[in-house]
Known about the structure:
The structure holds two protein chains of two kinds.
Chain A: H1 2-34, H2 38-44, H3 56-63, H4 66-98, H5 105-117, H6 122-132, H7 140-143, H8 150-160, H9 165-173, H10 178-189, H11 191-206, H12 210-215, H13 224-233, H14 237-240, H15 242-248, H16 257-275, H17 280-288
Helix pairs in contact in A: 1-16, 3-16, 4-8, 4-11, 5-8, 11-17, 13-16
Chain B: H1 2-23, H2 33-47, H3 49-71, E1 78-79, H4 85-88, E2 90-91, H5 95-102, H6 105-135, H7 140-151, H8 158-169, H9 175-182, H10 197-222, H11 226-234, H12 239-264, H13 271-276, H14 285-288, H15 291-302, H16 305-333
Antiparallel strand pairs in B: 1-2
Helix pairs in contact in B: 5-16, 6-10, 6-12, 7-10, 12-16, 15-16
Amino acid sequence: MEAKFSISKGFLHLFFTILSIAVVLPFLLVIAVSLTDEKSLTEHGYQFIPSDFSLSAYRYMLDSPDIIFRAYGVTMLVTVVGTLVSLLITAMTAYVVSRPDYRYNRITTFYVFFTMLFSGGLVPSYILVTQYLHLKDSLLALILPILLSPFNIMVMKGFLSKIPLEVIESAKMDGAKEYRIFFRIILPLATPALATLGLLIAFAYWNEWFNAMLYIDDPNKVPLQLLLVRTLNSIEFITTNSEFAQQLGIDLSDFPNNSARMAIAVLAGGPMLVIFPFFQRFFVKGLTVGSLKG
Amino acid sequence: MSNKASVALNDNGGTSARMDSNADSPLDRTKPKRKSFFRRELKHLKSNRELLLLSVPGILYKLIFAYFPMVGLIIAFKNYRYDLGMFGSKWVGLDNFRFLFTTDTAWRITRNTVLYNLGYMVITTVAALFLAVLLNELKAKYTRFYQTALFLPHFLSWVLVGYIAYAFLNHSDGFINRTLIALGFDPVSWYQDSAPWPFILIIVHLWKAIGFTTLIYFAGIMGISGDYYEAARIDGATKRQMALKITVPLLTPLIIIMSILSIGSMFRGDFGLHYFIPNNSGFLYSSTDIIDTYVYRALREVGNVSMSAAVGFYQSVVGFVLVLAANGIVKKINPEHSMW
C-alpha cells in the first residue's frame, strides 16, 4: 500500500514537472531568439538553443537606449501617479459606502456598482476623451480611463466594513473630524488591503496598452506596452520604414531584425516578470480580501 | 470574488435599512410628511457633510467617465461627424443597425464572441479543476513551486504573449514551421490560414489563465473541512473516491457560480487575445474576429464612428441583459451568491 502510494506521488510530481516546464518553455524561446545571431536565425529558424550565440541585438538596443528608457520613464510615471491617486480615491469612496450610519451608502454603492454592469463602451469613451476632455497625446489619457474600478471599491468596502463602528464613534466622541478619522485611523488600519489593491492597480497600469493605442501618437509619450505593440504590429515595418527606424535610432543596413524585436520584448517585459511573481500571493489575496466576513 | 464582496454589501444594506427605520420614529409621523422628510435629509447631510465630500471625487469621476459615455450611446442612432459633435450630429434612426444586420458581420462576430467565451470557460474550468484536485494530493512546499510556474503567464500582457506566439508561428523562421519541415511536413501559413485558429486561441488562453483559475479552485479545496476526508479515510475510501465523491461535489457551488458569472460576461470578448495573437491579420477575421476587435477596427482603422457605436450599443445592451439574467439564475439557485 505504502509503496503504491509513493509511486503514484512520483507520477504526480513527474506530471507537474513536465507541465511546469511546458508552461515556462515559450518564454525561453523568445529569450533564445533574442540571443541568437541574425544570420543563424534565417538559416536555422527560431530554436530553443541558439546555434550561434550573439549579443548584437542587445548591443543595438542599448547603443541608443533613449526610446526604451523613455518608454520606461513614461510607464513608471503613469504607474506611480495612477496607483497613488487611484488608491486614495478608491479608499475614500469605499470608506464612505462602508459606513452603515451614512444614509446614502446604499445609493452611492448602487451608483458605483451599476457602472460594472452597464457601460457606454468604446466609442462614447473615445469621443469623451478626445473631443470633450482633449486628452489626446496626454499622459492623463493613460491614467484617467482606468483610475477607478468598481470591483476594487467593492473589495475595499468589504475590508473596511470589518472595522468596528465603535472605533469611529469613539474617535468622534474625542472630537475628531471625518477627514481626520479617515486619514489617521482608517487608512493605517487598512494597510493590508491598500497593499494588495495597490499591487493590483500598479500591475494594471504597468501592463496597460489599450488606452495608449487609442490616445498616444506622440513618440515622446509612448509607454512600454505601446512600444511593444508598435514593434509587433510593424513586424516588417521596422525595416521598411526608415522613419520608425530613425526613431529607434537604428542603422538599417545591418539591423538584426528578428533578434532585435525579441530583445525589445525581453528588455521591456523581462524585469517585471522577475519582480511580479514575488508578490504572487497578493494577486490571490486580492480575490479573497473582500470576501472574509468578520 | 465580486459576488462575495457584494454579499457583504447586502449585509450592510440590511443594517442601514434597520437604522433608517429606527430614525423614522412614530413621533415623526405626526408632522407634515414632505417637510419632515426634507428637513431630516438635510440634517443628515449636514451632519455628514465631510463624509459626502469624501465621496465626491469618486462620484464625479464615475459621472464623467462612466455615466457620460452611457449618454453617448445615442451616437449609435446618429450619423456622427467630429465637427458637429455628439449632440449636433444628425439623427438617422436605425440606419447604422440596418447596415450591420443585413451583412453577415453581426452574426459572425456574435458567434465568435459567444463560442470562444463558452469554449474558454468550459476548457479552463475543467483543466483547472483537474489540476487543483491533483495539486491537493501533494505537499504544500512542492505545490508552491508548481503554482508559481503555472502562474507565470498571468503576469504577461497580451502584447508580450503576441511576441511569444509570433516566435512559434512566424511563417519562414517560426519554431513550429521549422519543426514541421524538419519532420518532413509542409509548413503552414499560420497568419493566413483561419482553420487552426480556434485551437490556437484556446491553447493560448488556457496557457495564460490556467494558473490563476487553478489557484481559485485550489483555495476552494483548502476551504473544505478535513473532517470529511478523515471520515472517508476511516471508511477506507481511495484517493480517487475522495476526489470524486467529496472534493468535486463540495466545489460544485463555486463552479456553478463561476460559470454563471462568466455567462453574464459572454458578450465581452478578450480584445488583447484576439487582436495580438492573430497579429490583427485580415486573413483570419472569419475565425478570430470578435465584437471588441470589430468595434476597435471600425473606430480606429476604418474610421466609421457610427457603425462602431452601433455595434458597441448592441454589445452593451445584450451584455447588460445577460448579466441581469445570470444574476437572476444565481439568485434562484442560491441567493447568497447573487451579485445583488
